[in-house]
Fold these 2 entries.
Entry 1:
Amino acid sequence: MPYQSKSKLQGISVVEVLIALAVLAIVLSFASTTFSNAALKKELQMAAEGVDFTLRNARSLARETGSSVLTHFNMGTDKSEHSITYSLPNRLNSANTGPEHGDFILPADIRMYTSQSDLRFDGRGLLDSPVEIELVSTQDATIKEILFFE
């Protein structure tokens, strides 16, 4: 007599499908949060590189011209744009652009905080006093970067 199995093949139940979907939803929610934070951190890192590049350009301009260069931090309000502008002293308020003038506007969801609103690089490219600049994401205040420039 041939062997016969007493068990019947059964499909998966609706409850098992729902449990699998719930587990998948939980895993995806963690992944999306992690991905979102990674994107915010990358944007903040790029903004920090832009701030650093702008201040280095201001320092280079001071060294190249042998003149002092004024740097202004526009920290505005939470709704306005935050930016950095630098220029030779006689051009800070002019509309000229070019090698004697530069600016960097931070992305709209990043805020800049510093205790100084202006910096002055002397003709040798040295600062009057060191500055600490804090960049903070408006979407998640725990995502921040601190730059120290001297």
Entry 2:
Amino acid sequence: MKARHKRDDNGRLIGGALTVFMSRINKTDGCWYWTGRERTKGYGGFTISNKECLAHRVSYEHFVGPIATGLFVCHRCDTPGCVNPAHLFLGTNSDNINDMYAKGRYPLQRLRDMPRDEKKRFVTCA
């Protein structure tokens, strides 16, 4: 029978869930890299009470506190597989998009900032 990981009413992992969760983390001086199941775009996955959860959200809830409805858990380090609570912060969708722009991670932003001759490779149809 598959172990069912559980958490309390405040989102903290209980029972063996915390041991299992922590065993799937490779801690460094900076990021804590998720080594468990990987979901799309490099984000980690962890099952709690038969529900698939994003590992960085589980980490935030366990170590920091509840996540209000509609908020994102964003990465200061821009590493999707990082679950270090010190690298995570809450924000709205707008906050997340503004953070992406501020850090130059928006693909069209990089295209816009390219020199004109280099940009032609991307926008010219053959």
